[in-house]
Amino acid sequence: MNELNKALDDLDGLHETFRALSDTGRASPLVRNAKRSKSLRQELSAGAEVYVSTLMASSRGELDAKRLNRCRRAALERMPAALVDQKRLAALVEERREADPAARQDVQTLVTLSLHCRAALAAMAPAVDRRAAEALGNKVLIELRAATLLYLSTARHGDGSAEAARAAVIDQLKKTEGHAEEFVALAPSRDDASLGATLSHDVVAMLHKTLVDWESASTAAPAAAVG
Questions:
Q1: pTM above 0.70?
Q2: How far is the C-alpha of 171 from the C-alpha of 173, rounded, in Å?
Q3: Domains by residue range for the chain, with CATH
Q4: Per-residue model confidence as pLDDT tens digits over 185-210
Q5: What's the per-residue H, E or C state across the chain?
Q6: How far is the C-alpha of 37 from the C-alpha of 40, rounded, in Å?
Q7: Closest to 5 (Cα-Cα) out of 94, 101, 77
Q8: In sequence order, what are the residues at sequence separation of 6 or more whose Cβ sits closer than 8 angstroms to the Cβ of residue 13?
Q9: pLDDT tens, position by position, 44-91
């Protein structure tokens, strides 16, 4: 999904800029001005959160240029001071680039889960109890958004590690997995091979794999530190 990659590039930029502003070892006057730095970080946080929330709200899970522009407009509205300081922020980031491919991959996973869930909900609607499907589907979507926002917040602060961000959302994702399984159970039969049923099963499988992978990583990290 080309538009998804563009969205991830935007979120990477917001994340890297926030982390650069938090790095007191940098030479930029933006960092040395504590009040200004704090204000800019607050704007960048708000911009990233509204961006990803708008992204995950894509109708039927279909991400296009129009939705991407809506994400960008929503974020820019939250960042008036950052927009004024755009050139100085770019220079700050260029002092020392700190890409975070692990966090990018994790955010892509969470956003993709949400988009697939929306696609499954739209595809299942004609064949199941619509009110029940929407109630469960919306619960899953709300929980995925909450997990994504918590992930982003955790990744921005502290050591900024993907491991810490994953650990912060595991309990939330476990709850979401249970609700997603209830959503799948709404299909008319276990042998239902419709698009909606297939997509909903894919969501549960992807969510389960994500949980297993992230739990394994969070367990391995402390053991490696001790060793």
A1: yes
A2: 5
A3: 2-95 (no CATH), 101-220 (1.20.120)
A4: 776 655 555 666 788 888 899 999 99
A5: CHHHHHHHHHHHHHHHHHHHHCCCCCCCHHHHCHHHHHHHHHHHHHHHHHHHHHHHCCHHHCCCHHHHHHHHHHHHHCCHHHHHCHHHHHHHHHHCCCCCHHHHHHHHHHHHHHHHHHHHHHHHHHHCCHHHHHHHHHHHHHHHHHHHHHHHHHHHCCCCCHHHHHHHHHHHHHHHHHHHHHHHCCCCCCCCCCHHHHHHHHHHHHHHHHHHHHHHHHHHHHHHHHC
A6: 5
A7: 101
A8: 93
A9: 999 999 999 999 999 889 999 999 999 999 999 999 999 999 999 999
- Looking up tokens 């959160």, which residue turns up? 49
pLDDT digits (tens, 9 = 90+) for 80-133: 999 999 999 999 999 999 889 999 999 999 999 999 989 888 887 666 677 777
The one-letter amino acid at 124: M
Tokens of 50: 């509204």
